[in-house]
Amino acid sequence: MINYPNGKKININNQKIIQKGNLGASLEDDLNKTNRYYRDHGIALIHKKPTPIQIVKVDYPKRSKAKIVEAYYKQASTTDYNGIYKGFSIDFEAKSTKNKTRIPLNTIHEHQIEHLRQVSYHKGHAYLIIRFSTFEETYLLEFESFEKFIKTNTQRSLPYEWLKKEAYLCESTYLKPCDYIAGIEASLQNKGVLTHVKQT
Q1: Class of the 9-50+76-190 domain?
Q2: CA pair distance 74, 88, nearest whole angstrom
Q3: Closest CA to 13 of 165, 198, 192
Q4: Calpha distance 84→106 (Å, rounded)
Q5: Under a CB-based contact definition with an 8 Å cutoff, are residues 184 and 31 in contact?
Q6: Beta bridge pairs of residue 103
Q7: Which of 83, 124, 134, 146 is most buried per CB count within 10 Å?
Q8: Which of 122, 44, 115 is nearest to 80 (CA)?
Q9: Cβ-count burial of 93 within 10 angstroms (0-12 exposed, 13-18 middle, 19+ buried)?
Q10: What is the reported pTM?
């Protein structure tokens, strides 16, 4: 038992490929599989961050085995993933919703927003990855766009139609079920920090 403490972008529609075998998989599973592909092929080094826990109670059903039966999160987590792509620091939080028209802002916690804000301040590249599971569509949103939205709107959710215009649609294939690197590449080029080199 785990107890919580109280406490514009380029819309890559023409590259979208949905494989039926991926339907039903969680966003985290898809990201982990995609990140494994990136690492194995030397594309990027992105890892899911572990959340530190304080173990309270351990059961020993056998002398050679131990089972954690109660633990507490030591602190609120920051964001889900971080790593390196072409020498650039990448950090993002991943969220999923079954809602067809919006994703509530309260699913993105204030400490996560503040962490992404700090990443951006220190010249890292911060993003949100948002999945609309009903449509099997996943988007990569620059944190700067997200922050501009929350500062200039009184809405308590990100509209689906707004996200389609402002974010990068992630391609989905069997080996890369949440292929967000094309969006990051386009984002870095859009920011002027990465020059596109044409392959010959």
Answers
A1: alpha beta
A2: 29
A3: 165
A4: 28
A5: no
A6: 158
A7: 146
A8: 115
A9: buried
A10: 0.77
Q: Which residue has the tokens 């308590």?
A: 156
For 51, the 3-state DSSP assignment is coil
CA dihedral 153, 157, 160, 164 (to 10 degrees): 50
The whole-angstrom separation of Cα 150 and Cα 146 is 6
Question: Is the confidence at residue 14, as pLDDT, over 70?
Answer: no
Whole-angstrom Cα Rg for the chain: 18
Q: What is the pLDDT of residue 78?
A: 74
As given in the structure block, the two tokens for residue 55 are: 């173990």
Query: Distance between the two ends of the chain, CA-based, in angstroms?
Result: 55
H or E segment to which residue 139 belongs: strand 137-142
- In order of 1, 48, 128, the CA distances from 182 in angstroms are 39, 19, 15
